[in-house]
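Entry:
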Amino acid sequence: MKIVLALGGNALLQREEAQTLENQLKNIKHASASIAKIAEGNELVIVHGNGPQVGMLMEQNATYHEVKPQISPYPMDVLSAETCGMIGCLLQQELLNADDTCSPISIITQTLVEKADHAFENLTKFVGPVYSEAEALKIMQERPNLQYKPDGVYYRQVVASPKPKDIFEIPQINALLATGSIVIAGGGGGIPVYKDDDGKLNGVECVIDKDYTAELISEKIEADMFIILTDGDVCENFGTPEQRSIKQISYQDLSKYDFPAGSMGPKVDAVCKFVQQTGRKAVIGSLYELDMILAGTSGTSIEAECALEYYNK
């Protein structure tokens, strides 16, 4: 079965954790062990997020620029490429450590966006570490060009996140899958590029949501299943006494719910689009229950037509 796995950047670095290599390695080791369990007999594409990682590089760039003003900060598209190399390398190592018979490979993926996308006017993509409200306000006073918004009980920086329109390396992804490789592609939503008036590719300052890019890759490689791996199931009335975990739901019914734009919203939009466009199944579930997701005993399954069903939790 051909499966696309969307792996969140926060799954690789928990939001309360220090942004150290040791913490990322610990989380990537756990993620890789979960993925390795389902590798045999399946064709896998892993699309990882990079919100915490690219935000960290942005802060490092800004600090370096303060020390050496003659060195301009690197743009977000270049920093995204750096995170793809870092995270891809660590994933490859830990997948091989979990199963030395697998064949993981990372590919830098360019994602086409439109500069006229309204996302450049409404910043919603969370990047970087978390701060208290007081810390975030202090940063914005010192650096007015930055925006921070609430992310749960914390504040995080937000940047533009336009919708992906095309993926340039789809032929290479298909070729690598044909060799039996586990392909790590679309990292960080892909490196954002646009076409100028001459049709030439140029980088653009933004971070593309990895769930939307993973959905587009799923469509283009004709995946049998699209799985978004996060903290757990989709829940009704999340955080209230009436909270219920959804076991299965049609994409039409799921699309009627209102989820936050900076967290579950893009995930729900992405799975609904995949099911609507392909008629095939998508799942949102826990990174650490991937084998159970394939067995149908975990995660929220989104299908073209099915009755709403809840877990008895």
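The CA atoms of residues 33 and 98 lie 5 Å apart.
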